[in-house]
Amino acid sequence: MKQETTTKTSYHIPVGPIHPALKEPVYFEFEISGERIVDVNVKLGHVHRGVEWASRKRNPIQVLYLAERICGICSFCHPAAFTLAVETAADIQVPERAEYLRVIQGELERITSHILWAGVAAHEIGFDTVLYFTWQIREKALDLTEYLTGNRVTKGIMTIGGIRRDITPDMLPRIKKDLNFFKDNFEKLRHIFLDDKTIKMRSQGAGILTKKDALKLCAVGPTTRASGVKKDVRVDTSYFAYGDLDIDYITPDVLTGEVNGDVYDRIIQRLLEVKQSIGLIEQCIDQMPAGDIVSEPKIPKLMNQLKKVNGEGVGRHEAPRGEVIHYVKFDGHSENPYTWKVRAPTYNNILPWIPMLKGEQIADIPIVAASTDPCMSCTNRVAIVNDNKRYELTKEQLHSLSVEKTRRVLK
Asked: To the nearest 10°, the Cα dihedral for 141, 105, 290, 248?
């Protein structure tokens, strides 16, 4: 009798860059065996906008508005990191009250961003009822943002040396009322996400990122903390007024007693951070000192000071997705930055997609990818065209180019 032999066959399927489950352009190449993912390749570069190059034609105040538009959801964290970098380079001291006001704005943006993510995550697993519920909560957060800044999305609240709008005593009742609204609905949201059988079945054990991989691949933000890594710029460097506040690292074991690093843990992580942000805002309201909100209110005088700066600065801020870094250098001859470099948190959270997606089913791709809360607009920075021919840079070539650029910038 002839013995039959079976051979394993794998297939390559593309996902993106335009796909109903992906709200921004990113291209995946998957190697599939049956319904299982064998290998993953990620390709970026579809939304390069030349933001950093444009900064060299603008002064630092004008660059603030460019920084705001790197990402609509992160329209505070990017200008916050940029101002920190400029203030370091120019040795500008920020009034203490402004530091507390900055914390309030940053934590309100975290609440808005995490609630948005919760709705998108529910949508990716087909639970649109939860999406609509989260949108109700987020609408209240956007209303409060507009009340404090005058805008819902691009807030225009940051400035070099402080912040542009104060919180007056007559505004406090409205703020406290909205914070209580968030607290009440947080419990409902927690119950839906953590106790619902469908969400548990779709998220527990899916997209696991181990602590070892999170450290090795330099993941940041909720993505790395959900894997048990205690990394948070607010705690590590205590910028703004965070050093005066009661804040500590949060990981999923605070609630569950264990860390699995799966999609379910990343849900827990963000829900816990929403609660933490509410508490931080309350602390700021109770402890905020009186005083000025900006070091130099006259823009022409500030610009005259910045024209004389010859040096560099780095700004680090714990954005909702993780640590965002802005680097800026001035040459002492122009009011415009000599160079400006942005590193968004999604850049760090791209490589972790590979171990998270390997071994998963095709149907889990949307929720696993979405669980890191990616923002491709924040991430893409450069496009290379060489006679319309595609080519790749090796690790050695990238290192050589990095060294060359660093030496050029330091001259």
From this structure: 100
β 11-15/27-33 pair status: antiparallel
CA angle (258 as vertex; 107, 121 as ends), nearest 5: 50
Write down the residue that tokens 């560099």 correspond to.
312
Tens digits of residue pLDDT in 349-374: 999 999 999 999 998 998 899 899 99
Residue 103 pLDDT grade (very low, low, confident, very high; cuts 50, 70, 90): very high
> What residue spans define the domains of the chain?
51-379
Give the DSSP H/E element, type plus range, for residue 137: helix 128-149
Residue 72 CA to residue 378 CA, distance in Å, equals: 9
C-alpha dihedral over 250, 255, 260, 261, to 10 degrees? -40
Distance set, CA 54 to CA 4, 30, 202 (Å): 65, 36, 43
408 CB neighbour count, 10 Å cutoff? 9
Enumerate the H helices of 245-338 as residue ranges. 253-256, 263-287, 299-307
Following CA atoms 392, 32, 351, 202 in sequence, which dihedral angle do they give, to the nearest 10 degrees?
Answer: 160
Contact between 360 and 206 (Cβ < 8 Å): yes
CATH class in words for 51-379? mainly alpha
Q: Is 320 exposed, middle or buried (0-12, 13-18, 19+ CB in 10 A)?
A: buried
- Structure token digits, residue 129: 């009822």
Which residue type sits at 359? G
Give dist(CA 148, CA 104) in Å, integer. 10
C-alpha 368/C-alpha 354 separation (Å) is 10
Is residue 13 classed as helix, strand or coil in its secondary structure? strand
What DSSP state is assigned to residue 42?
E
Residue 355 has φ and ψ, to the nearest 5°, of -65, -25
Distance CA 27, CA 19 (A): 9
- For residue 328 the two structure tokens come to 């800026």
Contacts of residue 270, defined as CB under 8 A and 6 or more positions apart, other chains included, come to: 114, 117, 118, 222, 373
pTM for the structure as a whole: 0.89
